[in-house]
């Protein structure tokens, strides 16, 4: 490994195969979503987490490219298009737009929104397939073979299933209302077994390849058995919505091969410009698609001689009504559009960030979202900010208090700053792994909790010191200003800290405090304007005029 400039490392390990790694340059991907139904909360979740991670890392000075999008080929999309009564193109475009609209409403700052139906993507899928067709596997035999296959197929997963993946009466474990269908077809297959040993070694050697550890262990279990050949085609007679195989026009590409390749085409692969992004790529996924990302994808990449992704970060699922996984086929989804309409995008983002768990499933419902909104956002954050600002406007001639701090209030402000810094620095240690930042998906709830804790401490402090009582004595005038200043300045730092989770609320709160908004900049918008953010006490301008005081979280009562 040799250093080549302040941020650039050339790494010759198997993982990066000579890619130039720019230590502060990364690329986050989300899964691309099937368009056979409207976007649901699970889709919103992964893409919002990706956006939070992007902003969080940008606050720490990284340059982060984020891609998301829609997966538009395959059997279930074709069936949904046929049922819709629209032309396939109209259907796909309408559905894809709904996903884009959801992510826009949620304030997601994606740098690339892919549709797998776009021409460049399709051409590059064919390019990689041609390359694979010419490849010999490590055992000296052709990588791609053609053969007759008969097996049980789940159209929900778009995968052939083994008996172990099905219930006793033949229903898919992932899609309990879909019975796997006996299917017999002549197809093309990619032989995965010759790569298994290399992949096992790779997963064993790279402890951070799959996060958290529980899923890396699951992957190793999947890799402990011989791997079946992966079917990479579908006959056109059965499925027309797909990318035609470059070496046999009777077939289209299996939707998963097509979909996975988006991660490369989004950054212009195979143009060499893809390299610096690819060297820092991290795939965010739900645990349902660990096998496709942890087994199929690395093997396709090894076979095509493309470096493996730097990291796969996995999260567990939100459970809907009845404690079951929300899914389109079960019909128990929470509608993100309705939640945004009633509570706002920030409240939904906050709920997801604060309550998600990467290793175990969690429950979500509109009642839980409302309770969190009222107790944490309206009562704690919104109320404290509004109370202090209104008090300040009423008592200090429409202005913020002076910035001279009493030693006691200064200590309190230092403690608040420390909590905000902890939320950012707890896992921002010097990286062990070739400069890849250790700010993880799994640490998002902890960040939310640290910031909420800081808000709680300020509420307690203000209640205890009671500036509204103290002000009755003229001799207390400067102490009162000091208490209010310390807590408003603390709130300013907390709002800055909250920006990755609730960018809109954070900037509206900061505006009320006379502060400039935090913004992404560049083309694409991959960095924080002004660079790495420092949390510095005392930035609030004492004595500045207070503008309009708005209610950030209007109280929402239970609708009877
Ligand atoms: O699998 N909780 O698309 P998909 C949390 N097109 N996240 C959830 C969730 C839940 N209940 N339900 C879904 C596909 N998700 C393929 C992916 S990628 C190359 C191709 C999220 O529409 C989670 O990220 O079924 C999950 O992995 C993804 O949506 C599946 O979306």
Fold and architecture overview:
The protein has 2 domains: 2-315, Rossmann fold (3-Layer(aba) Sandwich); 366-528, Isoleucyl-tRNA Synthetase, Domain 1 (Orthogonal Bundle). Helix 13 (366-395) packs antiparallel against helix 17 (477-498) and helix 14 packs parallel to helix 17. The longest helix is centred in the C-terminal third of the chain and has 30 residues, at 366-395. The protein is an alpha/beta fold and 560 residues long. The strands form 6 sheets. The chain has a 6-stranded parallel sheet, with helices on both faces. A 4-stranded antiparallel sheet has the order 8-7-9-11, with no helix packed on it. The chain has 18 helices and 20 strands. A hairpin with a 2-residue loop joins strand 13 (244-245) and strand 14. It is elongated and about 90 Å long. The structure holds ligand ME8.
Q: How do the helices and strands line up, and which of them pair or pack?
A:
Blueprint: E1 2-3, E2 8-10, E3 20-22, E4 25-34, H1 41-59, E5 63-71, H2 75-84, H3 88-105, E6 112-115, H4 119-133, E7 144-154, E8 159-161, E9 181-190, H5 193-205, E10 210-211, H6 213-222, E11 230-231, E12 233-235, E13 244-245, E14 248-253, H7 255-260, H8 262-265, H9 275-278, E15 281-286, H10 290-303, E16 311-315, E17 318-319, H11 336-343, H12 345-355, E18 362-363, H13 366-395, H14 407-425, H15 444-465, H16 467-470, H17 477-498, H18 503-512, E19 520-521, E20 527-528
Parallel strand pairs: 4-5, 4-15, 5-6, 10-16, 15-16, 17-18
Antiparallel strand pairs: 1-2, 2-3, 7-8, 7-9, 9-11, 12-14, 13-14, 19-20
Helix pairs in contact: 11-12, 12-15, 13-15, 13-17, 14-15, 14-17, 15-17, 17-18
The structure holds ligand ME8.
Residues 31-34, 42-43, 45-46, 71, 259-260, 285-286, 288-289, 317-318, 325-326 line the site of ligand ME8.
